[in-house]
Amino acid sequence: MDQNELRELENQCIQECAPECTAECPVHVDVRTLCAHIARADFNGALKSLKLTIPFPGIVGRVCDRPCETICKRNEAGAAISIAALERACADLGVADDKIRPAPARGKRAAIVGGGLSGMTAAFDLARKGWAVVLFEKERKLGGRLWAFSEEDLPPETIEKETRVLADLGVEVCPGQAVGRDVPLDALLREYDAVCVAAGRDGCEALPLERDENGRVRIDPFTYATDREGLFAAGSLCRPAYSPIRSISDGRRAATSIDRYLQNASLTASRTGEGSYRTRLYTGTAGVEPAGAVVPANPEGGYAAGEAVREAGRCLQCECMECVKVCEYLRAYKGYPRKYIREVYNNLSIVMGMHHANKFINTCSLCGLCKEVCPEHLHMGLVCREAREAMFRKGKMPPSAHDFPIQDMLFSNGERFAMARHQPGSRESGYLFFPGCQLAASAPDHVRNAYRLLTTRLSGGVGLMLRCCGVPAYWSGRTELFESVLEEMTARWEEMGRPEMILACSSCYETVKSHRPDIPVRSLYEVLDELEEPKSETASGCTFTVHDACSSRHDANIQRSVRRIVERSGAALEELPLHADRTECCGYGGLMKFANPEMAREVVRRRIVQSDRDYVAYCAMCRDNFAGRGKRALHVLDLVFARAAGDPASRKGPGYSQRHENRMRLKEEMLEEFWGERAPEREAYRNMRLDISEDVLERMEQRQILVEDLQRVISHAESTGGRLLDCRSGHFLAYWKPAAVTYWVEYSPCEGGYVVHNAYSHRMEIFEEGKA
Fold first, then answer.
1. Which residues, 6+ apart, have CB-to-CB distance to 130 below 8 Å?
2. Of 47, 104, 132, 366, which has the most beta carbons under 10 Å away?
3. SS3 string of 680-736?
4. Lowest mean pLDDT among 108-112, 479-483, 538-542
């Protein structure tokens, strides 16, 4: 990820974009912050935030033409926030303890023609930046068209009080001097380094300025420069209609140009977002309770404190956060994609030192829900997967993150599970059933029954391939390993005659479809739907909630087929709030379960509380993860291959050791049942009997230790004598390191086997003295 890619990705996240009210406001009042302060009854803080963008808050709160309110998102659920009234409230009720002081004098002078809102704003901004400012006003007092408002709307004392800030900044005011009548414009251009004409049309009729056919002064619409060197113009002189808030904006934009002009800087560089503009921020209002505006008891006096607090409390505090709302992972790290992308980039840039974002990167389930709900389609999963690939390539991937699922994948592609056969009695295969490693581990009977059904109902020969598709390697960023696994699978497929693959696992289906588009694929559930299975109403009278696998979010045909299978079983269906293309991950995808077990448990908890109904899943890991947290859940094949007795929804998923055993036994039994072949003899250590308590088994599950690992440790210790004896307990302690992980077992002999007292693992290197 280079800097350009970083900026493009960051730009896709719109969370930091301004809300619509702020973007529509020509001076970009921070309405969210204003309302947040007032909602807490912090009127001083509200006034302070308002004065960051408005030089005369007491005036604006009374006369603003409120373009922000016309576009306020609250219009979609009640009525717009009364923003101008809240501005008035904070000006009336707040106290600003910060006196505005100008920057140090910078040695150049600017003249402002006109003392209305445009001219006063230009004078205010330039004086704050350290330029000497002289303001010429033809009337005897400042304010211009403000004096045309009624005293009820804008009291004279408010105008006088608010405009005193110019004196505090050192602005020299020359009242009763009309430029063009009392002071020639050319004289100002000779005497001052820059001039801004911000008077109304009536006050500038005699000025030698180029005008359009409507009498408006011609200016550059971006810089407000006229055709004369050093002369700028703003305000109603250049506008078709008077607008108080746009007059302030015009004065500010003209002042920005004058400031740059006086510094000999570019008048145009880096000036995006000035004036009103269209923001990219998206704010959803679904579920927002409609509420009307708070009506003040005394309309002429404006909001009382309590009324203002209630009105400000209606503000939606507009933000996007659509991805964070639906993703427990993004929510838990208390940020949003723009921040996360920067953290990922910084993490990848570290040469020496701690990679603090490793766990964050490795926790993402890569499911893609963020992209589905994001208005800009930003996919944090792709960012994290590419980061994992880069980390592994640089040797910065911690071995603990994904070692166990990688070893599990290698086991599934080893001789104890992997196989490929044509249908018994056939020399070719029109179809190839690929159940995947997790269904075989979770419910081997379903694999056997599905294969028996397919060979019975489909003609042309149905072959069988047992192995893993390699997606754990892809998820972990080990691209070369992933490609080698796919190549091996593809080679076996070609040996089988390039048949159509029928896949039971959603992850396998997505992997083959995306990375081997030359292989024709179909989901097992599409096939079962076409065969109109099940034939009997095995779940008549039941109502289930379907959970869609996240790897099938874009496969509407699979989703429809699963629902038809459920309905054909006699059951009724309910949908989860997020389903189909917006379904949530179960906590297994992307190997979240291994990198961050606590987060995976929270992801599962969030999903299983969304309905009281029994869930039906068509991913074995989804079903087992839900069942492991106490949720009644079935696999859709439980409805197709109904058992005579038992409650499949209450079945807990097998532990890691049993999953290995289920795969091995499935291969052995299918070889014998379908092909009449005897499975190879198991290694001697596998016949070792171990007595393991429930407490130790639970710890082994948490630590991802298999019974086979303990058998190997004890076998190695007993055959070599490499063990320690604890004289107090009489227990032996031994270790063994098959690859990256060292396994330790505390055990003691018993009749016919061994008692396991404890087991743990780590990833440190063990060196025996004299053998280093």
1. 102, 103, 104, 105, 106
2. 47
3. CCCCHHHHCCEEECHHHHHHHHHHCCCHHHHHHHHHHHHHHCCCEEECCCCEEEEEE
4. 538-542
| Residue 376: partners with Cβ closer than 8 Å, 6 or more residues away | 12, 13, 14, 280
Evaluate whether 341 touches 42 at the Cβ level (below 8 Å): no
CB atoms closer than 10 angstroms to residue 96: 14
Task: Describe the chain by its helix, strand, coil percentages, rounded to 5.
Answer: 45, 10, 40
What's residue 702's pLDDT?
Answer: 85
Nearest Cα to 713, choosing from 688, 682, 691? 688
Give yes or no for a contact between 110 and 129, defined as CB atoms under 8 angstroms apart.
no
What is the rounded CA–CA span in Å between residue 525 and residue 468? 19
State both tokens at 706.
């298999």
Residues 6+ apart with CB under 8 A from 527: 454, 458, 502
Distance CA 556, CA 202 (A): 67
Asked if residue 599 lies in contact with residue 582, where contact means CB atoms within 8 angstroms, the answer is: no
How far apart, in whole angstroms, are the C-alpha atoms of residue 602 and residue 622? 14
Tens-place pLDDT, residues 573-614: 999 999 999 999 999 999 999 999 999 999 999 999 999 999
Give dist(CA 737, CA 742) in Å, integer: 4
DSSP class per residue in 327-371: -HHHHHTTS-HHHHHHHHHHHHH-SSS--TTHHHHHH-----HHH
The predicted-structure confidence for 323-363, as pLDDT tens digits, reads as follows 999 999 999 999 999 999 999 988 888 765 566 788 999 99
Which tokens go with 697?
A: 């088994």
Read off the pLDDT of residues 467-501 as tens digits, 9 standing for 90 and up. Answer: 999 999 999 999 999 999 999 999 999 999 999 99
Contact 163, 138 (CB under 8 A): no
Alpha-carbon distance values, 532 to 458, 544, 556 (Å): 13, 19, 18
Count of helices and strands (H, E) across the chain? 34, 19
**Alpha carbon distance 75, 67 (integer Å):** 13
End-to-end CA distance of the chain: 40
pLDDT band at 219 (very low <50, low <70, confident <90, very high): confident
Backbone phi, psi, residue 320, to 5°: -85, -80
Q: Which residues of 57-75 are buried (b: 16+ CB within 10 A; e: fewer)?
A: bbbbbbbbbbbbbebbbbe
Q: How confident is the model at residue 6 (pLDDT cuts 50, 70, 90)?
A: confident
Task: Write the single-letter amino acid at 243.
Answer: S
